[in-house]
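name: query_chain
kind: protein
chains: 1
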Amino acid sequence: MLTDDQAERKDMIPAVKVGWDKGARAAMEKVSGGKLVEIQLTRSGGGPEWDAEVAAADGTAHDVRVDAVTGKVTRSRAKSGQDADDKAEVAGRLRKARISPQQAAAAGTDRKKGTVTAVELEGSDRGATIWSVDVVTTDDWHKTTFDVDAANGRVLREDVDRD
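structure:
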């Protein structure tokens, strides 16, 4: 018996035709000098989509949506309410990231074969900058989250969500 989350993953993931990396590339192309901060597979009214946050060179965050079936950008706009501190924080995290989101995703899928459904650059409780990578296995539809050190690519934590 699948949980609601597992059933949602089972329903959504097979419909995806454009992987996270191609979705990220399409999102970054919409923002001049754009760098990926976050991308997550979500469901819109019409089907699966990649919800991405892409930062411009000055740290301005943009919300970019990419259809996960066609790969077309359906929305791109700067996030509202960003002040200089918000932009500096995003730019600082990006500067600290020595490994790419692709390398972080590979670190997760090297440990657990599956489909990458989210990649996010964030700070940790210990002050390190990490890439959080979600990998869903299609044999049981569980999601495993890997915290990957953004400076050296080491997996710091692995957590299986069995819901």
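note: The chain is about 25% helix and 35% strand.
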